[in-house]
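Hi R.,

Here's the chain you asked about this morning:
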Amino acid sequence: MSIELRVLELGQDDPRKCTARRLARMELARSYPAPARLPPMGIALDPFADRELSFADRELGQVGGLVGVDCSWNRATETFARLRLHGLEPRRLPPLVPVNPVNAGKQGKLTTAEALAGALAILGERAHAAQLMGAFKWGPAFMALNFPEEAL
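And here is the predicted structure, written out as tokens:
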């Protein structure tokens, strides 16, 4: 697992359903309470970014890691508009279908864990992505739906 995972926890969600917190508790990602505390290199997953994440971003991910921003979808537009992640390259994911219980089937409305796993799979780290999704009972279904074996 060569890509470090970080989550910026903004505390806008129900803590019992927060996938970012679960990843941090399981030591699958490192949690940060404020943008200023994040290391200033890597890729920030931003659903409103101009550029889409691709395999060409792999080296940047390996060197600087991936940052998932944990915020409420109800406040995502305002949160990402205000958020300034200095030194991080913003990238949006291609259209992926979530399977989490809250937003299942609502294209693009991923949990932080789904976003990080999707980014890992795009960057060629499918085993790491599967390990991440293994922390959730619905996680393997996310991988099977969005990254079927024959497509990789």
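One quick note: Residues 36 and 85 are 8 Å apart (CA to CA).

Cheers,
M.
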